[in-house]
Write a structure and sequence with these properties.
The chain is α/β, with parallel strands linked by helices and 264 residues long. The chain contains 8 helices and 10 strands. The chain has a single domain, classed as Divalent-metal-dependent TIM barrel enzymes (TIM Barrel, Alpha-Beta Barrel). Helix content is 36%, strand content 16%.
């Protein structure tokens, strides 16, 4: 059984990381994300997380500068040496419901799932699709990805295909436990935000505990209300912090961890 714990995504420390990889579906030389800063090499990140008291992490795929087996082994060693659990590799690109290129993007995603396995990641999060009304195709593609490896496949309430509770319900009803959900506080908004999140919280395998900051000040009311939704759903997985305030990354992460502690 999962145990509630605080995790940190490399996206939260993006402003400190000086490495980023290349390669997007259909364009192996494209760079999705520029390096965020010059403070840390990716190989140093697990140790820094452990030093600040975080023993679980999520890793954005685009932070990995090299995809060869030798580098993946080096990165796995750095994670293991730091005593950090790699909970999930976040595959932040690809559109498995693209009208023309869905199979190409699924195969590209599948390659990253294989790399997640080499890194020892417990899970991998894939985008459920970027086309409204493409739920059936998303189900077909997610089913194929879930059949590929021993790494558990999660998707997220993110982008157009899975942008409503109805779409999430349909996917999870059809796939019947074969995938999990990365439940994200910050992807949905509007007047029905909390009602919509409450409808899907029961599927959550892990949680992106996204705290909104305005002028350096966290929205504690929103954050706590979202945490109450996970509590009501008996959520027991890791809470991953995904936002670090530029210029005071570690301070803002510790601030969010303090807000989380009553829920652990």
């Amino acid at each position: 059984m999962s145990v509630r714990r605080v995790s940190v995504s490399t996206w939260a420390v993006h402003s400190l990381i000086r490495s980023s990889g290349v390669g997007r579906p259909g364009d192996p030389s494209a760079q999705m994300m520029s390096p965020g800063g010059d403070a840390l090499d990716l190989l140093e990140v697990p140790g820094e997380l452990a030093k600040h008291g975080y023993k679980t992490m999520e890793l954005c795929h685009f932070h990995i500068p090299h995809q060869d087996d030798a580098y993946l082994a080096e990165l796995k060693h750095a994670i293991d040496e730091a005593g950090v659990e790699l909970w999930s590799l976040l595959i932040d690109d690809g559109n498995i419901t693209d009208p023309e290129h869905h199979d190409r993007d699924r195969e590209w995603t599948a390659d990253w799932i294989t790399r997640a396995g080499k890194l020892g990641s417990k899970c991998v999060r894939v985008i459920g699709g970027k086309q409204t009304g493409a739920t059936a195709l998303a189900i077909e593609q997610l089913s194929k990805l879930a059949s590929q490896e021993s790494v558990r496949v999660l998707t997220e309430n993110w982008f157009e295909t899975l942008s409503t509770p109805a779409a999430i319900h349909e996917v999870f009803a059809q796939l019947d436990g074969r995938i999990g959900l990365c439940f994200d506080f910050g992807n949905w908004g509007g007047p029905t935000k909390y009602e919509d999140l409450a409808e899907i919280a029961r599927y959550a395998t892990s949680c992106h505990a996204k705290c909104q900051y305005t002028n350096g000040v966290p929205d504690e009311v929103d954050f706590r209300r979202c945490l109450e939704i996970t509590k009501a759903a008996d959520f027991s997985g890791p809470y991953t912090l995904v936002y670090g305030e530029p210029g005071k990354v570690w301070e803002s992460l510790d601030q969010q961890r303090q807000l989380l502690e009553p829920h652990l």
